[in-house]
């Protein structure tokens, strides 16, 4: 398979090795740790496959406990916490080489009549007239570095920043801790709602912590910080398709003590609020010639 969207669907297709035990692949890529969105998405697949499929997930809360190793399979053990009249609850533990690296609790609920309101979507330009990320990098550098080109070929999502990227310290002055991007999968993801939910869970971890970094350093290029997701929470409000454009609005209300908090809201083209996201990340300054820290 050459289509990154197809590879994402395949990545989320776990192997069932026991009734409530699943095994997920972890691509052997040139990363220091397994991408957190991959682990969260696979864990949610495991949770969803132990339900009757009639109740969509409405929330998840997760902790990244240890960095996963690329290229090594991850085993997901599911505990059936509750099957109630309205809600289904599952707890998932991700294990790699005998060590717990991740845990997640997911709750499933069938929508029912109730009150209706939401915060409006910000007034932003649509995605079609915005440059792709590759276009922005090429315009800034005059060429597309091979390392970035390889990343783009593997990237399952088309990402377009609403505001022009800042590349210099001068441009960073006065920047608020906010960011917004349009995103969609680069190809069809099929019609299984669980796949779309898990694919969006994957995407939600891709750049949420960008909002923390905006006032400090350019979002693309050499990093001055080692960053790691510490936890992740999502609330799913309405059905959606991840292979259609959605706006991911992000903000960081606070960063202190080596940690930064980020909040995200995901809207569809019609302005409906689909998903709310909150994440805290670890930020440690890198020393010269020092690699990213291992928090394990």
Automatic annotation (TrEMBL):
Keywords on record: Hydrolase
A Pfam family this chain is assigned to: 4HBT_3
Every Acyl-CoA thioesterase 2 C-terminal domain range: 153-282
All residue ranges annotated as the Acyl-CoA thioesterase-like N-terminal HotDog domain in the record: 33-109
Keyword Hydrolase attributed: yes
Annotated InterPro entries: Acyl-CoA_hotdog, Acyl_CoA_thio, HotDog_dom_sf, TesB_ACOT8-like_N, TesB_C
UniProt record similarity statement: Belongs to the C/M/P thioester hydrolase family.
Name this polypeptide is given: Acyl-CoA thioesterase II
